[in-house]
Each structure stands twice: as structure tokens, then as C-alpha cells.
Write a structure and sequence with these properties.
Blueprint (H helix, E strand, L loop, with lengths): L1 E2 L3 H12 L5 E4 L10 E5 L2 E4 L13 H4 L9 E3 L4 E3 L6 E3 L3 H12 L1 H25 L5 H12 L6 H9 L2 H8 L3 H11 L12 H5 L2 H5 L3 E3 L4 H13 L3 E4 L3 E7 L2 E6 L4 E4 L2 E3 L3 H8 L2 H6 L7 E8 L16 E4 L3 H12 L9 E4 L14 E8 L10 H19 L3 H4 E7 L1 H8 L35 E3 L13 H23 L1
Parallel strand pairs: 1-2, 1-13, 2-9, 6-15, 13-19
Antiparallel strand pairs: 3-4, 5-8, 6-7, 10-11, 11-12, 14-17, 14-18, 15-16, 16-17
Helix pairs in contact: 1-11, 1-18, 3-4, 4-5, 7-8, 8-14
The protein binds flavin-adenine dinucleotide (FAD).
The site of flavin-adenine dinucleotide has 37 residues, from helix 1, strand 2 and helix 17.
């Protein structure tokens, strides 16, 4: 039994069913995919509910291994992967390193262009090692192998390497680059996992931009949810079952087996349960209040506004391919820091840096020709506000986000027909993201690798016999990746087969 049809739960379901187990996935929502789903928000207009850009999953062979292409999944490359349409000189981040360096040279000078090339070269091996570590359970052996791969070039200076990895992204960026626009763009990318770039241990997150120069990010044609739909179809082809709109309300697990009681009251007995929902939800389902309280979820990260418009944003600066890319609307590193300062005071960011995405620019299947969806992701926004509630302040804050886009692309506000606002509270209500954290649990060192979500709940096993967990709450964390679902399935298959063998020998 798998609880939750997020993409990780579906990946796990596919691999368990492929290994010959009877699999049923129960999902509380009527839509599958969790934060990897797309729905019709306006007549004829398909809009992502969570993620839009798939980065990490494209560094795995998951799509090929499950042959999701034959089930209709088509990825369009995101090229350029990002753009900063700054009026004083735009930056275009192509997947092609030489093209990116040329853009940086034009806007910021040759020293920064050379620094960017060296930065990508330096951070490519650790990023490869990080991706490899994510594709395996977080055992001491696997993590040791990854650490060795990340640092083997610097074998004579291990302590310096560790110090480099542990430093704040801000310090690394300031020491490497001179131009404030370039510093801001890289810092803003580094902030996307949640922790602010001034936090200790965030340097490698900045370094992960090397990923884009290894393999382009992708956008499934038809919306992010096409990945989950293809996974559900693959699950069905392997004989797995999926029920929606009837999630788990209670779980019990002991040596004799597991029972899941669904919200409709049905009792389902099974050998093992894989909870692919939020870790806190899993702990609550089994009645472990202490574990639910100990998982460090934080309090929100940001919010999204999906604008329905008559046209694409026309930025001051013309960047070829800008509407394909992640449009980084960020002025300076100070703006990023100020937004985090607002968050600490439990206020929405007064001047939030934005990532704008315009999927309808390249995917005509999403909307009629005279309509566009302009998605703005804004950080940081707390789940609980110091003053008032999100229901009271949602519209004012969304107005501010629209005004920010309008500052970068005059005329944008006038093109808006309607909008759908997702504050941290809305993300929790609709997607089950506890406290609105899109990464489930903070992506900080005390909750990564073998500590995610808690030491005794890590490696996809829980303290309860037969209860396993996967998803963004577990290693390797949030984002569209599927690695956690695949790793967890491998761990379960091994455990369950071992248990069967032991029974046979008794
Ligand atoms: C607005 C937004 C934008 C994002 N943008 C990006 C992006 O561009 N790129 C990127 O890589 N990542 C992005 N992310 C993050 C990424 O989408 C998530 O980290 C990831 O999808 C988590 O997947 P998951 O399968 O682990 O969990 P989830 O997607 O959270 O799935 C968990 C599932 O469990 C279900 N569930 C919960 N409780 C129960 C229950 N009791 N019984 C049964 N089912 C239950 C939920 O309904 C859900 O379907 C974004 C997220 C959001 C919200």
C-alpha cells in the first residue's frame, strides 16, 4: 500500500509493482501528482498547481527506465534556462556554457565571464556527486562514496574543501563575482531550495547551477502534471491500483502486518505501507506526536501567483528566448536578504525577488492562442503572518507581485484578466504541504541525507515495522526528482523479499 499519489509515491508504486508486488496507491485528493500536477483553472487553460520546471528528474534515467515516453510524456528543453532581463544589461543563461559566458562578458565584463566558467568547472564534480548521492539510499557507504567523488580532486587539501562546502552561498558568490546583477542572479538560484544564501552550508546549492550545463531542464508538454499522469498509466500497466479522493486517515503497523483506515472508513490490511505523503502527516497517521513535532518543517517559503493574461510580459531588456526561461526578476543580493528579513519578522516580503515563468509561450496545448499564463514564484512568505491572516492579505500581497512584474515589464498589469493566488496557507490546503513548505522539510544540514526527516526515520524506514516513507520529506529532499520514490521501493523490495525468505526457512 502506498499513501499519496505525488510523483514520488507514483514512482515507488511503479517500481514495487514492477518487482511483482500487489500495489494500491491511496490519494486523499481527486487530482493525482501532488505538487506535480496540472489542472484546468480557467476554461481551456491548463495551469500547474505546483512545480513547472523539471531539473533533477532529467539527471536520472527514470523516464527511459519506465518508458514514460510511450505513455505520452514529452519534455521540451528549457533553453535558455534563466534570464535576468535587467534594464542596465541583461543576462542570458544558456545551457551552453560558452554562450552564457559570452552574455556575461557583454553585461559584466571578461573577469566575471571567466569566473563563471571556472565556477561551473569547479562545481560540476560535486554536483555530479550530489546527484549520484540522491539516487541511492543515504547509507554511510553511499554517502562516503559521494563525498569522495566530490572532493577527490582536492585530496591534498580536504579541510579547505570542507570549509568551501560549508560556507554560505553569499560568501562564495561575493568572493567569485563582481557584478551585482550576476551575484543577484546566482544568489536567487541558490535560494530556491528555501534556505537563504547567507546561511552556512548553502555554497553547494549555488554550485548546483552546474546542472543546467550538464543537461537542460525540461517542461513536460501539456504541463508539469503530465509526468504524474504518465507514471499513473505505467502503474496501471504493471497491474497497480490507484484510488483518489479517499486518503489514509489512520495507519497501524506491527510485526503481524499493517492496516490503513481510509477517510471513508475502509480498513485495508497489507504487508507493508509506504507513506509518500508529508513526513509530519505520516507521523500523525501512526499517532507519533513526538516525531511529528520534531520534524523541522519551518514556516513557509514563498507563494505563487498564476496570472491569466492577454500577452506575455514585455521586459525593458530584450533577451532572446526569455519567455522559455526562468525569468529572474531580482535587483541585488541586498533585495534577497531584505526579503528574508521580512520573513523572519513573519511579514510577506515587501519587495520580493521573483521567478516568472511563461509556459504558454512555448506550449500551445496549455491555452487558447490569445491567452497566456504568467506564473510568479515569490520568496519569502511565512505561513503565519504577524498581522492578520492570509485570507485578509492575499489580494494586497498579490497586487504587490503584479506591480513588481509591471516594474520590469511595463504594461503587464494591464494585460491581466484574472489570477489564482497560492499563499503558503493555500499550498497547505490544496496540496497538503504542511506549513506551505514546498520542500516538505527544511533543506538544511540538520535535515539532509541520513538525517532526513529525522535520524530514526531516515533511509526510508520508520521506527514501526512495515511502515516505510518516501517523498520530499526524505532523502534527497524536495523538487521534481523521483529519486526518493525509487530508492524507497528498492529498500522495501529488499526487506520484503528477505522477510519472505526468512519465513520460508522457518
Ligand atoms: C508552487 C510550487 C512550485 C514549485 N516549483 C518547482 C519547480 O519548478 N521545480 C521543482 O523541481 N520543484 C518545484 N516545487 C517543489 C516540488 O514540486 C515538490 O517538492 C515535489 O513535487 C514533492 O513531491 P512528492 O511526491 O515528494 O510530494 P507531494 O507532491 O507533496 O505529494 C504528496 C501526496 O500525498 C498526498 N497525501 C497527503 N496526505 C495524504 C493522506 N492522508 N492520504 C493519502 N494521500 C495523502 C497529497 O495529496 C499529495 O498528492 C514546487 C512546489 C510548489 C508547491
Amino acid at each position: 500500500m502506498v499513501i499519496g499519489a505525488g510523483h514520488n509515491g507514483l514512482v515507488a508504486g511503479c517500481y514495487l509493482a514492477k518487482a511483482g508486488f500487489d500495489v494500491e496507491v491511496v490519494e486523499r485528493d481527486t487530482v493525482i501528482g501532488g505538487a506535480v500536477s496540472t489542472v484546468e483553472r480557467w476554461p481551456g487553460v491548463r495551469v500547474d498547481r505546483g512545480s513547472s520546471i523539471h531539473v533533477m528528474v532529467r539527471h536520472t534515467d527514470l523516464v527511459e527506465d519506465l518508458d514514460l515516453g510511450s505513455l505520452g510524456l514529452v519534455y521540451d528543453d528549457v533553453e535558455p534556462w534563466a534570464a535576468l532581463p535587467h534594464p542596465d544589461g541583461a543576462l542570458r543563461f544558456s545551457n551552453d556554457l560558452a554562450q552564457t559566458c559570452a552574455s556575461i562578458e557583454t553585461a559584466c565584463g571578461s573577469a566575471d565571464a571567466a569566473a563563471y566558467r571556472a565556477f561551473v568547472e569547479t562545481w560540476t564534480p560535486p554536483t555530479r556527486a550530489f546527484l549520484a548521492a540522491g539516487s541511492r539510499p543515504p547509507t554511510a557507504r553511499n554517502l562516503g562514496r559521494a563525498a569522495w567523488a566530490a572532493s577527490r580532486r582536492h585530496v591534498h587539501n580536504r579541510s579547505e574543501t570542507v570549509r568551501n562546502f560549508m560556507q554560505p552561498a553569499d560568501d562564495l558568490i561575493t568572493a567569485t563575482f563582481r557584478d551585482p546583477r550576476l551575484r543577484a542572479a546566482i544568489g536567487w538560484w541558490a535560494a530556491q531550495s528555501g534556505p537563504p544564501p547567507h546561511a552556512v552550508g548553502t555554497a553547494p546549492i549555488a554550485g548546483t547551477l552546474a546542472m543546467f550545463h550538464m543537461q537542460p531542464a525540461g517542461r513536460p508538454r501539456g504541463g508539469s502534471g503530465r509526468l504524474s499522469e504518465a507514471l499513473a498509466a505505467r502503474l496501471a500497466s504493471y497491474g497497480g491500483a490507484l484510488r483518489c479522493g479517499d486518503g489514509a486517515a489512520h495507519v497501524s503497523a506491527d510485526d503481524a502486518g499493517c492496516t490503513v483506515v481510509t477517510s471513508s472508513g475502509e480498513k485495508i490490511g497489507c504487508r507493508a505501507v509506504l507513506a509518500a505523503c508529508h513526513g509530519v502527516t505520516t507521523a500523525r497517521l501512526i499517532g507519533d506526536v513526538a516525531a511529528a513535532g520534531a520534524m523541522r518543517v519551518g514556516h513557509g517559503i514563498g507563494m505563487a501567483v498564476r496570472f491569466l493574461t492577454t500577452q506575455l510580459p514585455a521586459y525593458h531588456a530584450d533577451v532572446p528566448g526569455v519567455h522559455t526561461s526562468m525569468q529572474l526578476l531580482v535587483d541585488s543580493p541586498e533585495q534577497i536578504r531584505a526579503a528574508y528579513g521580512d520573513f523572519l519578522r513573519r511579514e510577506p516580503a515587501v519587495d520580493p525577488p521573483l521567478i516568472v515563468m511563461t509556459p504558454t509561450a512555448t506550449d500551445p496545448t496549455l491555452a487558447p492562442p490569445d491567452r497566456h499564463v504568467v506564473t510568479a514564484w515569490a520568496q519569502w512568505h511565512p505561513h503565519e503572518l504577524r498581522d492578520g491572516t492570509w485570507d485578509e492579505r492575499r489580494d494586497t500581497v498579490a497586487d504587490g507581485i503584479a506591480a513588481t512584474i509591471d516594474r520590469w515589464a511595463p504594461g503587464f498589469a494591464g494585460s491581466v484578466i484574472d489570477r489564482f493566488v497560492q499563499t503558503p496557507v493555500d499550498l497547505e490546503r490544496e496540496l497538503g504541504l504542511v506549513a506551505g513548505n514546498v520542500m516538505h522539510v527544511e533543506m538544511e544540514l540538520d535535515a539532509m541525507f541520513a538525517l532526513r526527516p529525522l535520524p530514526e526515520w531516515s533511509g526510508y524506514r520508520s521506527p514501526y515495522p512495515g511502515l516505510y516513507l518516501c517523498g520530499a520529506s526524505t532523502h534527497p529532499g524536495g523538487g521534481v526528482w523521483g529519486a526518493s520514490g525509487r530508492n524507497a521501493a528498492a529498500v522495501m523490495v529488499r526487506d520484503l523479499n528477505r522477510r519472505s525468505r526468512r519465513r520460508r526457512h522457518r
